[in-house]
Amino acid sequence: MTAATGPEPPRDCPRCPRLVAFRHENAARRPDWYNGAVPSFGDPDARLLVLGLAPGLSGANRTGRPFTGDHAGLLFYETLLKFGLAEGVYDERSDDGLTLEGCIILNSVKCLPPQNKPLPAEVATCRRYYEAALALLPKVRVLVALGQIAHGSAVRTAGGRLSQFPFGHLAEHRLPDGRVLIDSYHCSRYNQNTGRLTAAMFEAVFARALELRKRPPHQGEGKMDQMSSVSRP
User: Fold this and answer.
1) Which residues pair with 41 in a beta bridge?
2) Distance CA 203, CA 81 (A)
């Protein structure tokens, strides 16, 4: 099953003035694009949650579905399909019929930020929607954070301090709420083109996430206690 998990902000969310102004600029240039707060996408019964950064200009901001329509989405959905977390064919459109199974995608910031760089205040303002969505996903045991901003949102929402949970690709963290967080470099075009993130590196994150998702709670998860982190090679 694939659906938005609420509560979601309205499409024309007014909370962040800078993002609202940027949305209006883009809507004037591209009135046929989605140009709004992008809802979550995935399985309401998910046990794995992927937390992204924000909609991309020609991706989710255009299509209205996370990671859909830009370069990042190619590797992202190819990986989900490979690991059985998605079914169907990814055709870079929100109406391509693709569904997620056991997995859901949320963004740290729901609206497109200029230069893909939300301000700390905007991240903090939008965190209420992540917190509300997470509260409605009781089966989620494993989180994958794509990039440092998503990592920060996941840690803060769980009641942790960033100093205790350093970001690193393939780093694992047992959060104060008992969930396990796995970090990944974001699958952006820049990270892929520079070699900072390869397909093999990205697949390793989801292979580990699925390994942890299959285990009983707190069993063998890197021997982590509630407030610990571990980096994997």
Assistant:
1) 105
2) 11
pTM for the model stands at 0.91
**Is the dihedral angle over the CA atoms 51, 26, 62, 31 positive or is it negative?**
positive
Distances (CA, A) of 12 to 20, 22, 35, 124: 8, 12, 8, 18
Residue of 144, 151, 130 whose CA lies nearest to 40: 130
Locate 26 and state its tokens: 């883009």
Residue 228 pLDDT > 90 = no
> How many angstroms separate the most distant Cα atoms in the chain?
53
